[in-house]
Write a structure and sequence with these properties.
This protein has about 325 residues and is an alpha+beta fold. The protein has five helices and 18 strands. It has two domains: about 120 residues, 2,3-Dihydroxybiphenyl 1,2-Dioxygenase, domain 1, CATH 3.10.180.10; about 160 residues, Roll (2,3-Dihydroxybiphenyl 1,2-Dioxygenase, domain 1). The strands form two sheets. It has a ten-stranded mixed β-sheet, with helices on one face.
Length: about 325
């Protein structure tokens, strides 16, 4: 299967829409507007970051996790062909309902589950927004286009099954592996997959025995300048959102980024400068460690020392 062109949208079920409204607009620099009610009648938000009408869909709910990933194909015929390919794999799938299509704004969509129970949607026809997208917080804009919105990284219990799913069902190509040390003489393998020139749109990592049990570890947005990454990092920190990994660079995709905690407890990677893949020349490589430099935890803003002469936030009028 090689019909998927990019990661077109992501859907999150979130418990606090108001906090997400502020986080998306004031920290990430996205445009926020109300969406149609979900098929269950719950409030939604649509988050815009480029020429598309939206790239992220928030649905009110208790999960605080990823609800679905939308994978773009060329047209209606390609969606229908994808369904036939799923039939040959004996993988159950379902057509999207009218209410689901209306919320996403797409022309045609089918959905199915991966071995971990994550919902994946194959679609066509995401519309453009009204007028150009301009972000006061991110003047350089976001890198999308044929590369799609960014990437998503899942934490999984059955790592081999998810690696097989990425290649055999989604039809993605292996970019590389990272062996991440987790103790003396011990490492876990993370696999990265691409659908286009973006280094990876999809990655899977074994679920750690500690921390929150989320379906995803993070999703990634790529800005057009390193300065916008730095400013987003400052906004995230000053707004009181935890930064689990401060500015650093990955050895495989060369992305310079930080990781901020979203209001739902999973993370967003905000980065710049990702390497592009040329399948004619690309050779998958194995790396030791997830960071070439940086990516250290950042203390909470309230614990950071203030520069001389700067009043504390608590005493500022």
């Amino acid at each position: 299967m090689h019909a998927i062109t990019n990661l077109g949208y992501l859907g999150f079920e979130v418990s606090d829409l108001a906090r997400w409204d502020a986080f998306a607009s004031e920290v990430l620099g996205l445009e926020v507007r109300p969406g149609l009610a979900s098929p269950e009648g719950r409030p939604t938000r649509l988050l815009r970051m480029d020429v598309a009408s939206h790239r992220l869909i928030l649905v009110e709910g208790l999960a605080d996790d990823c609800a679905f990933a939308g994978w773009r194909v060329a047209d209606v015929a390609a969606v229908e062909a994808y369904g036939r390919q799923l039939d040959t794999l004996c993988l159950p799938w379902t057509w999207g309902s009218e209410a689901e299509l209306a919320l996403r704004g797409v022309e045609r969509m089918l959905h199915f589950q991966d071995p971990e129970g994550n919902r994946h949607e194959v679609f066509c026809g995401l519309p453009e927004g009204d007028g150009p997208f301009v972000s006061p917080q991110v003047p350089s804009g976001f890198v999308t286009g044929t590369g799609g919105l960014g990437h998503i990284v899942y934490e999984v219990n059955n790592y081999p099954a998810m690696v097989d799913f990425a290649q055999r069902v989604l039809g993605l190509r292996l970019s590389d592996h990272i062996d991440m040390p987790v103790g003396p003489g011990m490492a876990i393998e993370i696999a990265f997959f691409h659908a286009n020139e973006r280094h990876h749109s999809f990655a899977v990592a074994p679920r750690p025995p500690f921390g929150p049990k989320k379906r995803i570890h993070h999703f990634m947005l790529e800005a057009g300048s390193i300065s916008d990454v730095g400013r987003a990092r400052d906004r995230c920190h000053q707004a009181g959102h935890a930064i689990s990994m401060d500015i650093g660079q990955h050895p495989n995709d060369q992305m310079i980024s930080f990781y901020g905690e979203t209001p739902s407890g999973f993370f967003v990677e905000f980065g710049y400068g990702g390497v592009l893949v040329d399948d004619a020349q690309w050779q998958p490589t194995r790396y030791l460690g997830i960071s070439a430099w940086g990516h250290q935890p950042l203390p909470p803003f309230s614990d950071m020392p203030l520069p001389p002469g700067r009043p504390s936030p608590a005493t500022t009028a």
